Amino acid sequence: MKLVGGNFNQHCLYTPGQSLLDALAKGLLSDQHVTSARILSINMSDGMVANSVWWNKPTSGMAGPIRTEEEGIAIGKSPDPSYPWFEDESSSPGLRSPKFAPSPLNISYRGWWTYPYYSCTHKRWILSYSVAIPPMGRHGLRGFLSIDIDISDLQVNQCDNANKLEIMSYNYHLRQYYPFVRNIKLSEENEQLNQIEAFHGSHKCHVHSMRCVYRPVSVTAAAINMNYNHYSNTSSFTNATGGSGAAMISKSLRIIQGWTRGAYECKCRDGFYSLPHPQGFNGSIMEVAFQEYRDNISSYYMDVFVCVRCAPGCATCTGPEPCLASYNWVFRTTLLTFSVMCAGFTVVLVLYMYQHRKVKVFKVASPIFLTITLLGCAFMYLEMAAIFPILDTYSCIATKWTRHMGFCVTYTALLMKTWRVSLTYRVKSAHKVKLTDKQLLQWMVPILLVMLIYLGTWTLSAPPTAEKIVDQNGLIFKQCSYNWWDHSLAIGEVLFLAWGIRVCYNVRNAESLYNEARLISYAIYNIALVNTTMVAFHLFFFPQAGPDIKYLLGFLRTQLSTSVTIALVFGPKVLRILRGQGDQWDQRARKRGITASFSLNGIGLVPEETADLYQENEELKEEIQKLAAQIEFMKIVHMEMNNRHLKPKPGSYFTLKSPLGKSIGAGGLHSSHRYKHPPKEDSLKENSGVITEDGHSGGTNSCYSGTANSIG
């Protein structure tokens, strides 16, 4: 290679048009970023170089451009294909060569950019831009133009993408570490730092467990040297560096070398940790370890320089310590098994009650409401199955439905029975209020419908989710979220229980068959007390309890409320049947005269074979109508009998010749024998004659007495 100054000497070979090419090349060097410019003229027939110029800008000094003679582009020869900026069209049609970087999708270039390469001649990192010059109106390569851009001052960022905040954070820590750098003001351009995209993604961090953090050049060596003299004379600097200021400067100079491989750090991603290197891995070490791993020299890259996944449930960690609370599955399975057995027992109890539905102890207690109560209890037992696994959205939805719907079904059925006693017990009129099961069911359905609509709206609009909470040991587990939906429903249930307690208080002195009203009242009091106590335990005694403790509290709440309710309402009935007393009336109820008004189903003390209520009522109505007709008829008879104001008609029922008259007359004669002095025959004839004529006078009292005797 021959370098020629601005004034060409006699060794230069000039061809026609070469002065024009020189002028064009030197004009391209006017840009401050362009360091070299070359223009080739290609012979289209044989592909040889017809003319070429190559001008370089000097690296230092005030000298002008320097003309370079290269053997690879000598006239009469083919251009050297090893040049990174040149590609022959014959070997690469369309100049789609791997030497050239692909253009971005949103930008269109006339030429091609090369990948960054290092020029050993100029000791620089170069990026070339080449443009092929086709002939007019035909295909081929007539000329080639290429310029070089010095990118040695740019930064090599091997990470996937530069983060401005990370760069500024690193500059801040650099100032803190090197006191003499604190007064250097870094411009916004230096903070953001133009980086070469070609090196992005070439880091050697493990992608799945590490993130690459770029460590850019924040200060220049000149700035460090400029401030070193100021800080090196201070005692604080000497003490801080231990007298090794020169070593620190050397280290700083090594840090700011932009074109070095490994100018980054590999830090563990969230969810991973490294005990030997908690602050991360140096990029230079990772580059060396990767090279040794690829050359089968060592396996440190895969064995030592790695980040380990945190324990399950940990978003971030510094070691292998667990983050999730442990579940005692044996303990939880035991409680769940017992709860499921209780739910199955309630179903068996329903079948048992259906089998003995005609026994008095069940018959007078409204079997349909007892069945509804048992089904609600079974529903509440299933809450333990809903909260058994690690909670998620579906488990929380099942928890809300089993808890609240079971509560509503169970205690609405019990309160309906108690409310019937309250209404009949408190009535002040002589006419007793009788409420049938059908009427109570009609009042119960709207209450259940309100609960169904509320839970359905809750599930569709804002379903409950499982949120993470921390126990007393800092371990994470999931619990169903609580919001204003829960609070509103809790307030409604408290008001419902308050109304139930008031109803139970009103019937505290009422007597019912088998003392059922009082036992139901005890069940209502119990559920109110249990719920209040468990809320206090959750909020005040065990606010940060673990998942197993909370599961145990849920089990205790279910057993103390549901199981106690079943024991109070159904226990005495089953015991009476087992003892053979199911068809025997409660003697206390019989002695105190408990009627249908105070029975929980409104039928009171019934005979062995009681007809259907509706049929019995219809028969009673018919008998009452017959009795009323007979009383009315007797009233008319007594008014017309022996009434002197009425003249009896021949053949009527009120003459002595009629069957009714004879029976009444005989009754009158029979009653006259009860007098101490019987009447004389004349007077009897006289009386008989009077009765025959007008049907009134002396026989009236006899008729009334006879009627009274017959009725009595």
TrEMBL record:
<feature type="compositionally biased region" description="Polar residues">
    <location>
        <begin position="699"/>
        <end position="712"/>
    </location>
</feature>
<dbReference type="GO" id="GO:0004930">
    <property type="term" value="F:G protein-coupled receptor activity"/>
</dbReference>
<feature type="region of interest" description="Disordered">
    <location>
        <begin position="667"/>
        <end position="712"/>
    </location>
</feature>
<keyword id="KW-0807">Transducer</keyword>
<keyword id="KW-0966">Cell projection</keyword>
<protein>
    <recommendedName>
        <fullName>G-protein coupled receptors family 3 profile domain-containing protein</fullName>
    </recommendedName>
</protein>
<keyword id="KW-0770">Synapse</keyword>
<dbReference type="InterPro" id="IPR054714">
    <property type="entry name" value="GPR158_179_extracellular"/>
</dbReference>
<keyword id="KW-0175">Coiled coil</keyword>
<feature type="transmembrane region" description="Helical">
    <location>
        <begin position="522"/>
        <end position="543"/>
    </location>
</feature>
<dbReference type="Pfam" id="PF22572">
    <property type="entry name" value="GPR158_179_EC"/>
</dbReference>
<keyword id="KW-1133">Transmembrane helix</keyword>
<feature type="transmembrane region" description="Helical">
    <location>
        <begin position="329"/>
        <end position="354"/>
    </location>
</feature>
<keyword id="KW-0732">Signal</keyword>
<keyword id="KW-0325">Glycoprotein</keyword>
<keyword id="KW-0675">Receptor</keyword>
<keyword id="KW-0628">Postsynaptic cell membrane</keyword>
<dbReference type="InterPro" id="IPR017978">
    <property type="entry name" value="GPCR_3_C"/>
</dbReference>
<keyword id="KW-1003">Cell membrane</keyword>
<keyword id="KW-1015">Disulfide bond</keyword>
<comment type="similarity">
    <text>Belongs to the G-protein coupled receptor 3 family.</text>
</comment>
<feature type="transmembrane region" description="Helical">
    <location>
        <begin position="549"/>
        <end position="570"/>
    </location>
</feature>
<dbReference type="InterPro" id="IPR043458">
    <property type="entry name" value="GPR158/179"/>
</dbReference>
<feature type="transmembrane region" description="Helical">
    <location>
        <begin position="361"/>
        <end position="381"/>
    </location>
</feature>
<dbReference type="Pfam" id="PF00003">
    <property type="entry name" value="7tm_3"/>
</dbReference>
<keyword id="KW-0297">G-protein coupled receptor</keyword>
<feature type="domain" description="G-protein coupled receptors family 3 profile">
    <location>
        <begin position="331"/>
        <end position="578"/>
    </location>
</feature>
<dbReference type="GO" id="GO:0045211">
    <property type="term" value="C:postsynaptic membrane"/>
</dbReference>
<keyword id="KW-0472">Membrane</keyword>
<feature type="transmembrane region" description="Helical">
    <location>
        <begin position="482"/>
        <end position="501"/>
    </location>
</feature>
<feature type="transmembrane region" description="Helical">
    <location>
        <begin position="401"/>
        <end position="419"/>
    </location>
</feature>
<feature type="transmembrane region" description="Helical">
    <location>
        <begin position="440"/>
        <end position="462"/>
    </location>
</feature>
<feature type="coiled-coil region">
    <location>
        <begin position="610"/>
        <end position="637"/>
    </location>
</feature>
<dbReference type="GO" id="GO:0043005">
    <property type="term" value="C:neuron projection"/>
</dbReference>
<keyword id="KW-0812">Transmembrane</keyword>
